[in-house]
């Protein structure tokens, strides 16, 4: 193999390693930021729900309040201190319930290739009883956006490598 060919292959290989490393970092950074944004929005929704329920004088019509705060295509599950379901509202036809990790702020689990975030928080009922409200939100757009980003980054890598390879051929 000629020295010129070795230099061409080496420069193309190093450039591709740099591009792949950079784009892998971009991909995982975007994924983490997108999940963090969704978690913050679900946390805000949870806080608003807790505030709305705890300010009610009675439990009459409380299901309407819960319906207003159901995450898109998600669910709200209300449990008493013994773990018995008191109320279950969901926007999907299939029953979803994710076991939450008590040591973390939220739980991320993939069901049928769609990531779901879940968080639980204590809720004071108008009768001063303490319940646990679990909010579950699927993230189908996150999966779609990550797939699009992956395709875009692969295409950019290929498009960037072609001129580099051909330019090294001219030397």
Largest sheet: 5 strands, antiparallel
> Reading side by side through the largest sheet, how are the strands ordered?
2-1-5-4-3
The tally of strands reads 5
Radius of gyration, in angstroms, nearest whole number = 25 Å
The sequence of SSEs as H and E is HHEEEEEH
How many separate helices?
A: 3
Unreliable spans are none
- How would you sum up the global shape? rod-shaped
Helix content: 40-55%
Tag the structure with descriptive keywords:
53% helix; 171 residues; alpha+beta; 3 helices; rod-shaped; five-stranded antiparallel beta sheet
Q: What does this protein look like?
A:
The protein has three helices and five strands. α1 (3-54) packs antiparallel against α3 (140-170). The longest helix is centred in the N-terminal third of the chain and has 52 residues, at 3-54. It is rod-shaped. By secondary structure, the protein is of the alpha+beta class.
Task: Please outline what is shown here.
The protein is built from 3 helices and 5 strands. The chain is an alpha+beta fold and 171 residues long.
């Amino acid at each position: 193999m000629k020295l010129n060919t070795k230099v061409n292959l080496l420069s193309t290989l190093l450039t591709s390693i740099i591009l792949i490393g950079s784009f892998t970092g971009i991909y995982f950074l975007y994924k983490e930021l997108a999940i963090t944004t969704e978690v913050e929005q679900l946390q805000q929704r949870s806080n608003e729900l807790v505030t709305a329920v705890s300010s009610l004088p009675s439990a009459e019509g409380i299901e309407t309040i819960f319906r207003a705060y159901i995450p898109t295509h998600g669910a709200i599950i209300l449990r008493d201190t013994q773990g018995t379901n008191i109320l279950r509202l969901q926007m999907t036809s299939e029953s979803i319930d994710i076991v939450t990790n008590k040591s973390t702020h939220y739980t991320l689990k993939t069901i049928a290739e769609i990531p779901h975030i879940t968080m639980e928080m204590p809720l004071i009922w108008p009768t001063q009883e303490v319940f646990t409200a679990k909010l579950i939100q699927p993230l189908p757009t996150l999966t779609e956006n990550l797939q699009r980003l992956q395709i875009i980054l692969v295409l950019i890598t290929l498009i960037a490598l072609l001129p580099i390879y051909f330019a090294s051929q001219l030397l």
